[in-house]
Amino acid sequence: MSAEPLLSVRDLAVSFEGEDGRVVAVKGMSFDVPPQRAVAMVGESGSGKSVTAHALLGLLPSPPAHIDGGEVRFGGVDLLKLPERKLRPYRGGKIGLVFQDPTAALNPVYSVGAQLSEAIRLHLPLGRRAVRERALGLLHRVGFPEPEARFGDYPHELSGGMCQRAMIAIALAADAELLVADEPTSALDMLAAAQIVALLADLRRERGLSLLFISHDLGLVAAVADDVVVVYAGEVVERGPARALLGHAQHPYTQALLASVPPLRRERRRRNQPVRRLPVLAGAPPLLTRGDAGCRFAPRCREVVARCREAAPPLYPVGPLEVRCFLREQPRRAALLPEVAP
Ligand SMILES: Nc1ncnc2c1ncn2[C@@H]1O[C@H](COP(=O)(O)OP(=O)(O)OP(=O)(O)O)[C@@H](O)[C@H]1O
Ligand SMILES: [Mg+2]
């Protein structure tokens, strides 16, 4: 991972004004998306995944949202410092967006073809005919078998899966370099979800796209991601290559997440295992306040020790992974070497 990251998020902090004061949703969020890699972000509900995705492109409603600090560098430019006008070529242009519920993201009063054409016109200086040709080409590419015939269809005339394909076409309207997909399959049935994931994987290979893939579904994550970032209470607790992280997770939170995934039925049958109750991680992530001391996961951690409540752990390297846990701190090599007599 020596290449300069395409997207680099550093110390992002976001809070929301509420009736009872300020709620911190994201604090100290840092991760990279290298060129042409797929990075999955996982974590339970309320951990700050969508807030992070929306913050990248200035899509949070302000008020109540407030960006308290940090950097979001894309190709070296800090997007958080750009005025609205200069952010537009990125939003839906260099960075394509695919959100959870395609029927809500599409405008019900315009046809799919019209919305796609509008997205193309917004970002590319093309004439009418070229816009239509590009729109038809994109619809075809994302799996509309007869794009000419479906160009004038309205969102309500399409299945959820086809709406999500249309959203992906819109995200690609202007040759995006990065796709941000926030739970792109959670509103779809299993088959449509698998098809959308396969489409994203194909497009990525074909176009050399980078992907930030936010998902609850660790099965999909394993199928899509090169790298995984695990977030808890608004910060990264573990990250690294997908195979190492999903196979040998080090953080007690990641271990609990993985333990709550039911093994595939086929796999269970093969191993002749009975259906067992899955362990459930009790409790909920903490509400963050400014003066928090200690590890944010300590109240729910089964390995907690006194130190965890006193100071906040940094990320420690553990093999190919980085893990925010004191218990995984490895002795520094130098400390293990015998002292050399003078
Ligand atoms: N519009 C809002 N107003 C106030 N607080 C909000 C708002 N949106 C998000 N939050 C706060 O930010 C936290 C993180 O929310 P976010 O939507 O990022 O979670 P998430 O990780 O995407 O969860 P999910 O998996 O359910 O989509 C929430 O717990 C909530 O406290
Ligand atoms: Mg979300």
Describe this entry's structure for a reader.
With 342 residues, the chain is α/β, with parallel strands linked by helices. The protein is built from 14 helices and twelve strands. The strands form two sheets. It has an eight-stranded mixed β-sheet with strand order 6-7-8-3-9-10-12-11, with helices on both faces. Strands 2-1-4-5 form a four-stranded antiparallel β-sheet, covered by helices on one side. A hairpin with a 2-residue loop joins strand 9 (227-232) and strand 10. Helix 5 (128-141) crosses helix 7. It is globular, with a radius of gyration of 22 Å. The mean pLDDT is 89. Magnesium ion is lined by residues 49-50, 182.
The total beta strand count reads: 12
The geometry reads as globular
> What small molecules accompany the polymer chains?
adenosine-5'-triphosphate, magnesium ion
Q: Radius of gyration in whole Å, from Cα?
A: 22 Å
- Order of helical and strand elements: EEEHEEHEHHHHHEHEHEEHHHHEEH
The main β sheet shows up as: 8 strands, mixed
Low-pLDDT runs: none
Q: Strand order across the biggest sheet?
A: 6-7-8-3-9-10-12-11
What is the share of helical residues?
25-40%
Helix and strand composition category: alpha/beta
Beta-strand fraction estimate: 15-25%
Oligomer: single chain
Q: How many DSSP helices?
A: 14
